[in-house]
């Protein structure tokens, strides 16, 4: 009886390997559900993403909280302008190229006219959605905040502070207009290139030839 009972107990028991596998399988969903990686870890260019917001947030904080530390308007003005210039250069030349694959600049011709030039990434190279979303959010959010500051200056009759707001809006809107037009230009180039590949050259002849051959084979099959 003792031998029989021992055999029954061993046969009903689950192997140790199965127990460890089941426990690991149960732990994996818990580890995955514990939390997603941070935005910086999801970003392809975390340092660039930080500097995309660093200078503009610094300028906004200096403007809003500067009077808490000093009454010197000239000092606040100089700090804000410096931060705004650093932000303009960083967004125009670095973060736009790395985060969304776009770059714009303007050239003055001899006749006095200004020409806008755009560069864009290869459409076959996908963008990081986190980088793209945060880039456009920061690009449009900053001038919206400065617009609110300008309205408050008018309502409170602090017209001197409008000088800082005017500088901020001019620099921020230059990047907004430049990158908006650059993005439209990139989409138009992608659409025209896609259409030319589909409708022109060997691609079009292959597409039309395939359709014609299928139609002829179907007609021959129905007739015979």
TrEMBL record:
<dbReference type="GO" id="GO:0016192">
    <property type="term" value="P:vesicle-mediated transport"/>
</dbReference>
<keyword id="KW-0812">Transmembrane</keyword>
<protein>
    <recommendedName>
        <fullName>Golgi apparatus membrane protein TVP23</fullName>
    </recommendedName>
</protein>
<feature type="transmembrane region" description="Helical">
    <location>
        <begin position="72"/>
        <end position="91"/>
    </location>
</feature>
<feature type="transmembrane region" description="Helical">
    <location>
        <begin position="134"/>
        <end position="157"/>
    </location>
</feature>
<feature type="transmembrane region" description="Helical">
    <location>
        <begin position="194"/>
        <end position="216"/>
    </location>
</feature>
<keyword id="KW-0472">Membrane</keyword>
<feature type="region of interest" description="Disordered">
    <location>
        <begin position="1"/>
        <end position="27"/>
    </location>
</feature>
<dbReference type="GO" id="GO:0000139">
    <property type="term" value="C:Golgi membrane"/>
</dbReference>
<comment type="function">
    <text>Golgi membrane protein involved in vesicular trafficking.</text>
</comment>
<keyword id="KW-1133">Transmembrane helix</keyword>
<comment type="similarity">
    <text>Belongs to the TVP23 family.</text>
</comment>
<keyword id="KW-0333">Golgi apparatus</keyword>
<dbReference type="GO" id="GO:0009306">
    <property type="term" value="P:protein secretion"/>
</dbReference>
<feature type="compositionally biased region" description="Polar residues">
    <location>
        <begin position="1"/>
        <end position="11"/>
    </location>
</feature>
<dbReference type="Pfam" id="PF05832">
    <property type="entry name" value="DUF846"/>
</dbReference>
<dbReference type="InterPro" id="IPR008564">
    <property type="entry name" value="TVP23-like"/>
</dbReference>
<feature type="transmembrane region" description="Helical">
    <location>
        <begin position="163"/>
        <end position="182"/>
    </location>
</feature>
């Amino acid at each position: 009886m003792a031998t029989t009972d021992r055999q029954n107990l061993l046969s009903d028991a689950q192997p140790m390997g199965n127990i460890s596998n089941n426990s690991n399988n149960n732990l994996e969903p818990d580890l995955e559900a514990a939390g997603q990686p941070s935005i910086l870890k999801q970003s392809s260019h975390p340092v660039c993403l930080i500097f995309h917001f660093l200078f503009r947030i610094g300028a906004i904080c200096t403007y809003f909280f500067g009077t808490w530390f000093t009454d010197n308007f000239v000092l606040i003005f100089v700090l804000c302008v410096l931060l705004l210039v650093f932000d303009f250069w960083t967004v125009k030349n670095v973060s736009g190229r790395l985060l969304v694959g776009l770059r714009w600049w303007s050239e003055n011709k001899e006749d006095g006219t200004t020409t806008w030039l755009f560069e864009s990434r290869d459409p076959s190279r996908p963008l990081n959605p986190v980088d793209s979303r945060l880039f456009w959010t920061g690009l449009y959010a900053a001038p919206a905040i400065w617009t609110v500051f300008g309205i408050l200056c008018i309502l409170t009759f602090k017209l001197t502070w409008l000088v800082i707001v005017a500088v901020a809006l001019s620099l921020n809107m230059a990047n907004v207009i430049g990158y908006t037009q650059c993005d439209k230009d990139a989409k138009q180039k992608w659409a025209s290139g896609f259409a030319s590949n589909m409708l022109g050259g060997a691609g079009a002849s292959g597409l039309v030839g395939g359709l014609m051959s299928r139609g002829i084979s179907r007609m021959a099959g129905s007739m015979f």
